[in-house]
Design goal:
Mean pLDDT of chain A: 78
Oligomer: heterodimer
Largest interface: A-B, 41 and 41 residues
Number of helices of chain A: 2
Low-confidence stretches of chain A: 139-155
Mean pLDDT of chain B: 81
Distance between the termini of chain B: 73 Å
Helix content of chain B: 55-70%
Largest sheet of chain B: 10 strands, mixed
Structural class of chain A: alpha+beta
Shape of chain A: elongated
């Protein structure tokens, strides 16, 4: 019986200490910023319609892993590899740098709230201005942080 | 809802129900839990398969605008399902068990919870997003809770199907699952509370209101339910007013917990948990609710889950490796934690591992918790898909891994049926498998005549219970552990009245013929005596299960076909000389020895043929069989000339109470697997029949005979 109580105390002590440790370490971690949602894109370079990059850009995001979909016609699977979205603090850095499937996508901050300059490079180079019109977290919970506007950061 | 939307919704539900049933049955055939098939059906209807293979059809069947209707139905389904789960939870289960079970159950929650939370440290910067709902605390607690869930209904179902529920392993596993169930939903309520509130004040309010809610449920609602039960007892039936009152209480409880901020499902579960246990009222209520919830609403929940599961989001090796890691951590926490705790409590490694494997079953409970996480925004779509895969893998692994680690021979028929070691050799033993309770007394009468009243003869009554379809999502433990088997009750009552000693054996069987043969082998019986029920497919009596018992049982087999059977006084034994015919003779002799009956042995020969030698051989065999002088007078040997042996037997059968006849082609009685051929004697005989067949082993050992057909022993034979 005594052995049983000791096991109990041990089990719950391990749980308490373990959970405390995990939560404490976890507070120092940062998940990638949310770039998911629907973006309206205005291309500055020649419109890359031949590649299907036109109209509304829909971004599905699970942490670093994103899917960019252009008007349900073309999809790119990309991973965030750098930028302030990963918690890096340098204001000179882009919001997010993504790569995958032979493409590199860079989202540069702008002065406009919830808007970025988008650059897609691969076989060709495209540049445009993207403004987020909706995000998935709006339907789940309110108050998720937006990409902060950066004063005169437009390249 | 527009008429068009209603049309689409009805079509959607029809497709969901049909596919879910088909897949459920298919997986049951593969010895997997039915729920596995239904979960897979849901995934098949979603973007991961149908939407991927045939996007146009998928969008036509499931247009986004109509998904919300499916959502409402699925939510309602889960609310009622959680009520049923709470209803099934029996605190007596926890009280009866030893300390070991309680320790194992707590370790089986703590270990995966801690490992799940620790895994969040690695996953958080990779597959979670920085939103208000996805704070690390919420994510870590949710991952912990999701890892520590065990599917109580699926586990209980596996236990009953494998007859493990009466073993120590089964008892401990079911107790742990029950504790896990309660703990998981309490944990989930806590996690939901944390995820939904930000700041100390709302959290305190949620906690305080939760305490008030639980107190109200136990001290106000529980006595109220007791009063409702009294109304039921007084009326003797479950009136619509009573059902409506219970429904109102379920919905009010779910509404309250949702309003407090700890999710509607917790309210439904607690409402079920405070209901009286094991009473007729509860059983009746659960039967009313179960069919609609399980057969109609739950498949919609699976489909809705499948519609939200995008396996295509796991589109890189890295993500598949992360999925593998999630599965590994889930198994390490649940299987590893439970196994080590069971081992520490003194169980041998094999039993400890079996408990670990059983506890690792997550089933649809994992899907319920994952949907809550997704709805709260605590997990991303990719994590949702990964966790759904984890739920499917851990559930699918349970049965095959359990078979490997803890095979049925460890706890199988030998143990249930008494075991060979326990046996003392009996002079004559009869195994009576009973499926129709009404046939029990007739079978007992014949068995008593065959075995006599000698103390060293033995009668075993066997009832094999197929896994009950309607209990697919419930433990089914009430039926499985019932001390008195209702199917055997008439037979046992008759035995008590007649002063005959009968040993009852009953267990759940997935393969009736195989288990009859198994018990016959284990108990080394001389004869298997069973009734006959016309098969759904085919016309023959000796088809289907009967055919399989005939060909696999390591004992002689007799099939009783009931026709105006009371007290047999006149027995007819058609005899051609084959070995099955000789068995018929032997059994008739036994009856004549133990009861006051007259036996007529009918030997049919073709007209216009020399049949002296044939008849003489048959007469000698009869004389040898009926050796005792007193009994010799009870047998009458009759030779009949006839073109058709079958017609001759049918003619003579008019005068008999019972015809004991061996299986043979001459009699038009062949055992067939599918049984398409009609068997005329069996169909047309005006008297009851006992169709007998020498054991398959004996048939093969007999020189010049085949397992299915014995040759006439007499030289002339009979031309049909």
């Amino acid at each position: 019986m005594l052995r049983g109580y000791i096991v109990y105390i041990l089990v719950f002590a391990v749980l308490g200490v373990g959970l405390w440790f995990v939560l404490r370490v976890g507070q120092t971690l940062e998940a990638p910023a949310e770039i998911a949602g629907e973006w309206r894109v205005q291309w500055e370079t020649a419109s890359p319609t031949d590649m299907g990059f036109h109209g509304v850009m829909r971004v599905d995001q699970s942490g670093r892993y994103c899917t960019f979909e252009f008007d349900q016609t073309r999809t790119m699977s990309l991973k965030i590899v750098g930028g302030t979205a990963l918690g890096e603090d340098d204001p000179k850095l882009p919001v997010a740098q993504l790569s995958g499937g032979g493409y590199h996508v860079t989202l540069h901050p702008t002065a406009v709230r919830d808007a970025v300059q988008i650059e897609i490079s691969g076989r060709d180079h495209y540049r445009g201005f993207a403004e987020r019109v909706s995000r998935p977290s709006e339907t789940a919970t309110a108050g998720a942080p937006l990409i902060p506007p950066v004063a005169d950061a437009r390249p | 809802m527009h008429g068009h939307s209603l049309l689409i919704l009805l079509g959607q539900i029809a497709i969901i129900l049909a596919l879910s049933r088909v897949m459920g049955l298919l997986f049951a055939r593969l010895h997997q839990p039915q729920v596995m098939g239904e979960m897979i059906a849901g995934i098949m209807l979603g973007p991961s398969l149908l939407g991927w293979l045939w996007p146009d059809a998928w969008e036509m069947i499931f247009p986004p605008a109509t998904i919300r209707y499916l959502n409402v139905l699925s939510q309602l389904g889960v609310v009622f399902f959680l009520f049923l789960i709470g209803l099934e939870l029996d605190p007596r289960l926890l009280r009866r068990r030893g300390h070991a079970a309680v320790v194992i159950s707590h370790v089986s929650i703590v270990a995966p919870f801690l490992l799940g939370a620790t895994l969040a440290l690695y996953l958080y910067p990779l597959v979670f997003t920085s939103t208000a709902a996805m704070r690390f605390t919420s994510v870590a607690l949710f991952m912990g809770a999701a890892m520590s869930i065990t599917a109580f209904p699926v586990l209980a179902r596996i236990l009953t199907e494998r007859n493990l529920h009466k073993t120590q392993v089964g008892a401990i596993a079911i107790t742990c699952a029950a504790v896990d169930d309660v703990s998981a939903w309490c944990m989930l309520a806590f996690v939901v509370g944390i995820a939904r509130t930000s700041g100390l004040e709302p959290a305190m309010w949620t906690a305080a209101m939760s305490v008030v809610y639980v107190l109200v449920m136990f001290f106000l609602i529980r006595p109220l339910v007791g009063r409702i039960e009294k109304v039921y007892d007084r009326q003797g039936r479950l009136s619509q007013n009573v059902v409506a009152a219970i429904f109102l209480l379920i919905l009010a409880s779910a509404w309250t917990t949702e309003a407090i901020g700890i999710h509607a499902l917790f309210g439904a579960f607690l409402m079920g948990a405070i209901m009286p246990k094991g009473t007729r009222f509860v059983r009746h209520l659960s039967e009313k609710l179960e069919d609609y919830t399980v057969a109609f609403l739950l498949p919609i929940f699976f489909a809705y889950t499948g519609l939200r599961t995008q396996i295509n989001l796991i589109n890189s090796l890295e993500l598949w490796l992360l999925t593998g890691l999630i599965i590994a951590v889930a198994c390490a926490g649940k299987f590893g934690g439970s196994t080590l705790a069971a081992r520490a409590c003194g169980l041998p490694w094999r039993e400890a591992s079996a408990i670990g494997i059983l506890m690792n079953t997550r089933g649809l409970m994992e899907l319920v918790i994952l949907n809550i996480g997704r709805e709260l925004g605590v997990i991303t779509d990719a994590v949702f898909a990964m966790m759904v895969i984890m739920a499917l893998v851990t559930t699918a692994l349970t049965t095959p891994v359990l078979n490997l680690v803890y095979p049925e021979r460890m706890f199988g028929i030998e143990k249930i049926a008494g075991g060979i070691g326990k046996q003392v050799r009996k002079s004559f033993s009869v195994l009576i498998p009973v499926s129709d309770p009404a046939s029990g007394s007739s079978l007992l009468k014949i068995a008593s005549m065959l075995a006599g009243t000698k103390p060293d003869s033995e009668l075993l009554a066997l009832h094999l219970k197929p896994p009950v379809d309607r209990d697919a999502y419930r433990a089914g433990l009430d039926d499985a552990t019932a001390p008195q088997d209702t199917a055997l009750a008439p037979l046992l009552a008759e035995a008590r009245k007649a002063g005959v000693n009968v040993e009852p054996i009953s267990f759940v069987s997935r393969d009736i013929a195989d288990d009859i043969a198994g018990v016959a082998q284990t108990r080394q019986v001389n004869l298997v005596l069973m009734g006959f029920h016309r098969p759904i497919i085919g016309r023959a009596i000796l088809g289907g299960t009967v055919h399989r018992v005939f060909t696999t049982a390591p004992a002689d087999v007799a099939i009783f076909v009931h026709r105006k059977f009371t007290e047999p006084k006149k027995i007819l034994v058609p005899y051609l000389g084959g070995m099955h015919d000789r068995l018929a003779l032997e059994l008739a002799e036994r009856m004549a020895r133990h009861a006051d009956v007259k036996v007529t042995v009918l030997h049919v020969v073709a007209p216009q043929r020399q049949h002296n030698a044939t008849a003489l051989g048959a007469r000698n065999t009869v004389k040898e069989t009926f050796t005792e002088p007193d009994e010799a007078s009870a047998v009458h040997f009759k030779v009949v000339e006839h073109d058709s042996p079958v017609a001759a037997v049918l003619d003579e059968a008019k005068e008999a109470d019972l015809v004991v006849i061996g299986v043979s082609e001459e009699w038009g009685l062949e055992s067939q697997l599918l049984g398409w051929r009609p068997q005329r004697i069996a169909d047309e005989s005006p008297s009851s029949l006992l169709i007998v067949r020498k054991s398959a082993q004996a048939a093969q050992a007999e020189p010049g005979s085949s397992a299915t057909q014995a040759q006439p022993a007499t030289p002339g034979g009979v031309v049909a």
